[in-house]
Design brief:
384 residues; alpha/beta; WH-like_DNA-bd_sf; 13 helices; 14 strands; WH_DNA-bd_sf; 3 domains; Arc Repressor Mutant, subunit A; ATPase_NBD; Nucleotidyltransferase, domain 5; 5-stranded mixed β-sheet
Length: 384
Amino acid sequence: MTAPVDGSYGSDMSLAALTSILMHGPVSRTELTARLGGSQPTMTRAVKPLLDRGLVLETEDQLEGPGRPSRPLVGSPGAQRFVGVKVTGDEVFAVSTDLLAQEIAHTTMALRSHDPVDVAATIAEAVHALASAEELECVGVALGGSAVDGRTVTRAPFLDWRDVPLADMLEPLVAVPVVVDNDITALTAGEHWFGVARGERDFAVVTIGAGVGLGLVRDDRVVRTHDMGLGTAGHVPLDPTGPRCFLGHRGCSTAMLTIPSIEAQASVALHRDLTFDEIVALAREGEPVALDILTAAGTSLGRLIAMVANIAMVDVIVISGDGLAVRDIAEEALLTQLAAERDPEATPLDLRIDPEGFTRWARGAATVAIQWSLPRLLAAPAAR
């Protein structure tokens, strides 16, 4: 397994064409030629194996432009199957998809322990529940940690893992190739190829939930570093008067935006244990303490989004995660703070909400599996 997980496949024109069609289709051969270089005859030869193998289709709709109208190319769902797995501290959520990361089925299974052998066994059980090895191409696994080589989890704090060869452990159990990625970068890859940011060359993903995550795409590439999984976005200072996080940072993004912190604040203030959903319900009813806490969170989210946009210099921001209700309850506070933190002449931000939850995270892992599988799919015999 040496293919990169970011969709960059070197000079092979057929691979480059397939990547571009999956990311940006429908697209004409003329547009592909302009995007990738070369000549029209070269592009025709490059696209032929994609059509022969059923990886792309010519649509019935015709694109008007210079010369004769052309039938655009789109990715084909195909017969290939992939499984994406999102691992949390308590469970694995798995989804089977086609080549376009469209969900076919999903399942959730509880973890027996954090022992790598147990986690690998639970992942394999989930995979077998969704697809047989005969129909499966690849499994993608996403978790809160670093696995920049796509094989070994060098660090996963919530599982207390270091240097766990998860792909090597899983492949004998599932009998297909396995690729492992950080959950935020996998989610970002999914948004880039098949999600709400499809077609965007530059954007950021901000997630709020159990933690705070940040993903980035620059020039059509997902940014990956060895520091993924360290929670570098989790302790950005946002409110000097806010509560402290578990590390003692006052008003950082973890203290202001995560579900555990919001639950702790409300439970202390209202003298009873409250879940995030209960706090949201109280805020919707106008309960002042719950409303104040979520409004402060919305203000902090606006500041964080502004920081990301200002520093990364992106205009499209995808917001996702289990804590999206913060945005719903405190949208006005979010937008007010966002405007205050941005230069009035700066390009207006395009905020895109993805409420899909764990399904989107697992489909992100499936997207990484799809990306890793493209060279192998092109090497397979053409369909008859």
